[in-house]
Amino acid sequence: MAGKAHHTDATRMLDTRGYAGPTIHNTNPLHLLETPVRDRITESYYWKEQCFALNAATLCDKASALTYIGGTYGQQKPTPFLCLLFKLLQLLPEKEIVLLYLRQREFKYLTALAAFYVRLTFDATEVFKVLEPLLGDWRKLRRRTREGGWRVDYMDQFVDDLLVKDRVCATSLRKLPNRMILEDLGQLEVRVSPLGEEIEDIDRDENEVEEADGNGIIVNGESSELSN
Questions:
Q1: Residue 57, CA distances (Å) to 60, 67, 93, 164 in order
Q2: Could you give the 3-state DSSP secondary structure of residue 17?
C-alpha cells in the first residue's frame, strides 16, 4: 500500500496539467529526465520498495550504500543510481546539502550522485566551479553498461563526461556554454589544470637533459668533454 502511494505521489508530480511546484531551468524538475526513463524508474522494484519516504538524510544513507553508477541496462532496467537521482529531483534538497554530499570523501558513489545532480540543476557557471575540482579525483567507479555488463571508470572521467557530453547514464544533458565564453564574461577564472605542476616538472627535466647533452655531460651512458 505504501509503495502504491509512493508511485501515485511521483505520478502526480509528473502531471503537467496545472503544475505549480518548484521549477529548475523553467521546467518541472522531474522532466529533466526523459519520459521513457521516468516511466521505467517509477515502475521499478527499487523505486517502489527502496525510495519510499526517503528524505535528504535517509537518501544519503541509501546513496552511501551504492556500489556502482549507470543509467539503464538490459531491458532498459534503471539502476539504483538513476532511481536515487530521480528521487533527488523530487526532493530538491537545499544547495548546501547537495554540496555536503559532493564534498564528503567517505562515500564515492554519493559524490558521483551529487555531481550528476549538480550538472542537471545548477546554472552553468556553478556547474564549472563546483565540478571542476573533481577532475583531480582519481577514485575508481564501477559502471553498469547498457548491455548489463561492468566496466571500471574513474571519478575524473565521469565528471569530464558530465562537462563535455550531451548524454550520460541514459540522461540527456542541457548544453553548457563554452567555458572560454564564461571566462571572457568574467564569470569564471582561467582554469589551471591539476596536472600543471607535473607538466612543468617534466618540461624542466627535459630542458636540463638537453642542456646537459649540449654541454657534454654524461648522457645515455656516454661521456663527453665540456666545451671551454
A1: 5, 19, 10, 31
A2: coil
